[in-house]
Amino acid sequence: MSSEASTPPSEIRIMMATTYLALSIMGLLPNILLAIVLIKNRSKLLRTCFFVITTQILICDIGELLTQVIVAFPLSLYGSNVYEGSGTIYIYYITNIVDTISYNGVLLFTFVMAVNRLTVFMYPSLHIVLFSPLYVWRTVVVVWCIIIFEVAGANILHCWKRFSYDEFYFFIKCYSSSWQLSIIWLEVMRYQSYALPIIMFMLYMCLFVFIRFKSSSSNKTTRSSTIQKKTEMNLLIQAVILTVFLELQTLSFTFLPKVGAGYNKYYSSLAQNVISILNNSINPYVYFFINMQIRREMITVVCGRRFATRRHGKTVTKVYDLTNF
């Protein structure tokens, strides 16, 4: 970066900080609304694998968004690490660790969601082993153990996430003498983040083809065919949105900090964090539009049950309601 851009002017700092704060709050609100819905209906929803996995993704999304509020916003605004001190510095360290855990959590649990939707139709015996009410929490614990193992390994190797308050982006820096091992560990995590969204998209496409083939080979009423088409479209929309944003977040974290010079560097950093925030904000909107039960409960929380009943009083039974598995 040029010396001209090494110390950002106050207007750049204000723009960066307010953008991060505003978008993070806009992302937190629908996630909090979704959390309220899940908590209010936990006895019913948490018996369903879809909502168990959704809860894990929700926790991780909130973790990443809070990192923007706690770290990115104040450091961007003040141009220094406001947490430096004997005790408060641990707020900075712990929040950055939570951010790394949350990112890996979103990635892996979104992948688990794709596997869940594939196995329920194509490999029912495997679905029972991984996602039946008796075993779904075991699967969740295994995934969390993988996440903690990956992040703990990086931190043990002294590879820590930091936030550049002069260039406005998160990065991981290794301070270990075992430099080669640190690089290998981070490369494995990085290529995992590249590969999983692509694999997820392929899984969704396989499921789409399977459902389309199965529906075309069976006799269906006109109403059932309409429901089937809506389900297929929901799968495609969800696959594209979730996988594209995950891949964009990974690519932006890797490449955008290297793009541009001078003031353009700031806009590259802005784009990186905006993509990350949008990725953590998109799930409640996806669930709202594709899941009637969540949509009705969200409207109930915001507008009251009478309004929700009036607008969505009719119950529609979906032929392929993937949220029931």
UniProtKB/TrEMBL annotation:
<feature type="transmembrane region" description="Helical">
    <location>
        <begin position="20"/>
        <end position="39"/>
    </location>
</feature>
<keyword id="KW-1133">Transmembrane helix</keyword>
<feature type="transmembrane region" description="Helical">
    <location>
        <begin position="234"/>
        <end position="255"/>
    </location>
</feature>
<protein>
    <recommendedName>
        <fullName>G-protein coupled receptors family 1 profile domain-containing protein</fullName>
    </recommendedName>
</protein>
<keyword id="KW-0472">Membrane</keyword>
<feature type="transmembrane region" description="Helical">
    <location>
        <begin position="45"/>
        <end position="78"/>
    </location>
</feature>
<keyword id="KW-0812">Transmembrane</keyword>
<dbReference type="GO" id="GO:0016020">
    <property type="term" value="C:membrane"/>
</dbReference>
<dbReference type="GO" id="GO:0004930">
    <property type="term" value="F:G protein-coupled receptor activity"/>
</dbReference>
<dbReference type="Pfam" id="PF10328">
    <property type="entry name" value="7TM_GPCR_Srx"/>
</dbReference>
<dbReference type="InterPro" id="IPR017452">
    <property type="entry name" value="GPCR_Rhodpsn_7TM"/>
</dbReference>
<feature type="transmembrane region" description="Helical">
    <location>
        <begin position="270"/>
        <end position="290"/>
    </location>
</feature>
<feature type="transmembrane region" description="Helical">
    <location>
        <begin position="135"/>
        <end position="156"/>
    </location>
</feature>
<dbReference type="InterPro" id="IPR000276">
    <property type="entry name" value="GPCR_Rhodpsn"/>
</dbReference>
<feature type="transmembrane region" description="Helical">
    <location>
        <begin position="194"/>
        <end position="213"/>
    </location>
</feature>
<dbReference type="InterPro" id="IPR019430">
    <property type="entry name" value="7TM_GPCR_serpentine_rcpt_Srx"/>
</dbReference>
<feature type="transmembrane region" description="Helical">
    <location>
        <begin position="90"/>
        <end position="115"/>
    </location>
</feature>
<feature type="domain" description="G-protein coupled receptors family 1 profile">
    <location>
        <begin position="30"/>
        <end position="287"/>
    </location>
</feature>
